[in-house]
Amino acid sequence: MTEMTRVSTDIDYDKNGKQHGHLSVPNSRDNSGWGTLLMPITVIKNGEGPTLLLSGGNHGDEYEGPVALMKLIRALDPSEIKGKIIVIPGLNYPAFLAGKRLSPIDGKNMNRIFPGKYDGTISEVIAHYVYHYVLPQIDACYDLHSGGYSMFMVPSAMCHYLEDKDLMARHIEALKAFRAPMMLIAEELDVAGMLDTAVEEMGKVFIGTELGGGAILTPESVKVAETGIRNVLKHFGMMEGEPVTPTWRGQTEAKLYEIPDLGYFCQAKADGLYEPFYEIGDWVEEGAPVGQIHFPQSPEHDAMVVAPKKGGRIWCRRAPGMVEKGDAVAVLAIESEK
Ligand code: CA
Q1: Is the confidence at residue 113, as pLDDT, over 80?
Q2: Ligand 1 center to residue 106 CA distance, Å?
C-alpha cells in the first residue's frame, strides 16, 4: 500500500523535460486558514538513466547549495542530461526563507527528524514526503550543506563509514567524484534522524557537502558547489565531459581525508570569547592548541587553551567569537590512503 501523505505536487516524476513546480504542504495559521506552504521543486528528466536527488537548504542558513541549484535548474536543458534529477533548493523551506538553521514554524532541525511523520509538524510532514515519495525513486542523493552561521569550513564533500563494503566502495567513488578541496570519510557525532542515515539504510548513495559557512557566500565556495554538481552528473554517466577540479585559496588538488574518531572534534570547555590560532585548511601538530577562550567578565584570569587529542588539518572552525561550553570550535582531519 502506498504510504499516505499530506503533501501534494503538480510535478509528474515520470515526465520527460523540465518542470518547475511545488510541493504543497498544509500550513494553516492565524492569518491564513487554508494556507499552504508552496516549496519549489524542479525535475529535469531525459529518458533512461540514474535518478539523483540534489537538495539544499536542509539547514536554512547554508547558502552555496541553494544558489548552485537555483543556477543549475535555470541553465540546464533536459537534452544535456540522461536520466533524472530531482532538485529541491530549500528542503527546510521555512528555515531557508528565514535564513535560520531550524524551522521558524516548529523549531525543528530537518536533519534530525527523518523518516518524518504523516501527522507531525510541518518539518516532519516534509521529511515524511521526501522519505516515502522521493527517496524510493533515487539512486543517490547529494545534500548540499555549508557551515552555516556557527562554522567556517574548507569547502568539502563527505560521507560516513559504512559497514556494507560494497556500499562503502560506491560511496567513496561518488565522494571523490565531487572534487572538492577536501573530501572526507567521517565518524559523525549524532546520526539519528538524518537524511544521510535514511538514504544509507535504503542501500543508496548519500554524499553531503560542507561548503563554506558563516551564513555568507564566497565566490570560491559557490564555484566548488557548481563544479561539484556537474562533476557528479558526469560521474554517474548523466552528462558528457571531463570533471573539473576547482581552486580554493590557491589549492588546486581535490584530496581524500578521514575523521576516524571523535578525538578530532574540539569543544569549548567554558563559556567565553574564542580566539582561533589557525585558519581553516591549516595543519596542526598533535598536542598543539588550536585556540584559547578568554573570559570577558574576568579578564585577569588566564585564557583556557583548547587542544585536540589528535593532530591534523583544520577542516572547520567556529565562526562567531562568543562560545558556550559544549560548542564545537574546530574539527580536524587526516589524509586518507583509501
Ligand atoms: Ca548543515
Answers
A1: yes
A2: 18
